[in-house]
Every structure is written in C-alpha cells, then in structure tokens.
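Morning!

This is the sequence you dropped in the shared folder:
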Amino acid sequence: MHRPFLTKLLPVIASLVMLPCQAAEWSIEPRLELKAGYNDNIRLTTRDHDSVWETAVTPRVKFGTAQENWGLHGNARASIRRFFGGDGREDNDILDREDYFFNVDAYHRGERSEFTGLIDLARQSTIDAELEEGDAVDNTATRIRKTISPGWSYNLTELMRFDTSYSFTAVDFSDEKNSGSNRNNIEYDYQVFSGSLTRQFTPKVQATLATSYSMYQPETNFDSDTLSVQVGIQRNFTETLTTNWLAGMRQTESDTGKLVPEGFCAPPGGSFPDCTVGIPVVTGSKVRKNSDTDTGTVFSASITKLLESGQLSLSASRTSTPSSDGELLDTTRFIFNGEHRFTETLRTSLRAEYSNIEVIARASLNDQGDRDIYRVIPRIIWRFQREWEIAGQYEYAKKDEDDESGNATRNAVYLTLSYRPDKLFISR
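The structure's back. Tokens below.
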C-alpha cells in the first residue's frame, strides 16, 4: 500500500513537535503497574473456550513542557502480558503479547492563530479491540497503527474562531500467531479532513458549525468516502454543570470492484458475456465497480456534573468508523462514568457502556453482521501510601450478534498495584 501522505507529512509534524527547548522546564511523571486477574472468556467468543489467568507489567512515563507561546506533551507506555491456563489454543504461545504505545502532541500560539501537531504510534494485541473500539478483528493478531494529525485554528474576531485539521491513520498487521481463526485481518488507510466555525454568544453559550470528509481505503477492491455536516451548542449552565451536543447528517459513497471477464462471442450472436448465440471467448478481465450510497444521522452529546465528592458524566455518539474487517461501520455508543471519593485515600468508580454496531458498506470478505455490545466495570481504589495504590475491578461484557452465532459473555476480575512517584522537573 502506497502512503505518500505519511512520508510527506512526517517531517512537518516532527518539526512542529521538536520545538526549541532552551530555557524550558520539563516535567517527567513515571508510573509502574502490576496487574493480575481471571477471565472466563478472553476472546468474547461463542466458540468452546477455557478460562485464563493473566498477569501484566506496565511501565509508563508522561513528559511535557509549557512555555509562553508553545508546549509539548507526550506519553510512552509498554505492556507485557502473560496468560496461563486454557486448552492449548489459549496458552502463552497464542495470547502472550508485548504492546508498545507512544504519542506526542505540540502546539504553537501566535497572536490570533494556533498550530497543533500529533503523532500517535501503537503496536498492540487485538484481544480487546472489539470491546474497546467495536473492531471485530482476529483477536490474536498484532496491529500496528500510525497516526499523524496537523491542525490550525484562527480567531476571526474576539467571538468567532475557525478550526481545521487533517488526520491520516495507517493500520497494518504483523505476523499473526496461529490462532486457528479463519478471519482475514485487512490493512487499511483512513484519512479525515475537518473544519468548524465556532461563535461565542455569551460567556456560557457557544454554537458550532462543523463538517468533515473521510476516506476509508482497505487493501481490497473496495473504498468509501463519507461527507458529514453538523451543528451544535455548548452550554455551561453552572460552574459544575456542562452540556455539549453536535448533530447532523452524513452521506457515504462506496465503490466495490468486481473482477469480470471480457471478450467476444464466436460466432457472433450477442454481446459477451451475455451471448445468445455462440461460444464465449475470454480475452482478459477487468474490474467493474458497483457504487452504492448510504445516508444516516451522526451526533455527539455529553453532560457532565461535578460533585463535592466526585463527578458524573453521560455521553452519546453515532459515527462512521473504519474496521480491519473490510467494513465501514455505523457505531452508536452510550457511556456513563461516575466517580465517588469516600476519603482522600479511598474512591470508587463505575463505567457502563452500550454500543450498537451496524455495517454501512463492506468488501464482502468476512461477512460480519450487526451486533450489540454491553459492558459494565465497577472499580474501587485505595491509596494506602503516598506513592502506592491498589485497585480491584470487576468486568462484565456481553455481545449479541444478529446472525445465528448466539451471544457471548465475559466475566473478569483484576487486581492492580500502582506505583506513582513524585513528578520530576528538569530545567535546561
């Protein structure tokens, strides 16, 4: 797959994020997590499966600096995961993974404008891809995702701002372990051009007109383009209650290429391949494209309430998203997050999710159907020392598919020990 955009834009983004660092104070925030747990359906599958035990070691570091007119922040993380138990298909040779993540973003402000840049790199297992992203891939593969995204904003007036951005994502797969799966993981490119106009009406109210154009290009004879237009309002009712919504329409144009023979009839009697008389003579083949148009709604909305001892938030969205299954998806998601602090050292949280995933267009390779995914995660966290905390977590997940494969459920319990030393500051 040719990716000229990636080659051309990387130096641009790199020059933006590698801003002058003289006389800058940098912060470094290291962290180490040790995790152990039990999972009765690690792949969230309806096929025969065994329970597994998991251990993980995750070192990470956050870094950054902020100056008068520029700043840079980044995050580097590794996760070493080991699995035990199973039936031979779910042993450490199949599921064990070493995942790596790195991202850095930067900004530079002028008198009326601001330039931004982002680089995001990830090499990770796809075990949790369907739960986290709705992407139904072979969940024993290793996915490599590279994203670059420059952006620019300009203050037209004191009350009106224009924003534009571009995002390019390339998804590849490394050599996959023998999972026994017959699924095909499809590599793809995904590009998004977006722009918005925001008007501040009062200190508590602002309106936005936004548009985006995306291109999904998997390594098949299939591609799709989506154009969307949305309008929305952000309203701060009080210092502790904020709402934000954006809604509109999208139109998706999809082209599917089909290899068809071409030639002539001998003796002449019709038009190949629809010969009424004669014998078809194949001289070659060509790709014939079938086009299709799909329209639908898109939206995003959220409400956040700050409490004296925590916060509550509810969000909803419907977006078109690419997949590694050769499909363009229409994903509707509702997420609830709640957090309550009992004391300065003891807190609890609850996350509940519902996702409905519908296929907008497909390359007709894997024939994945529509599906619903439910997920509930309660946690309790105790900071027993200034730099140490321990967290207990339960997870319930369920997947309902429209086809005859049935429903899959997951129950998992994890215990995580975290070490968070004080933030370090380095001046130069």
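Headline: The domain at 4-427 is CATH 2.40.160 (Porin).

More detail when I'm at my desk.
O.
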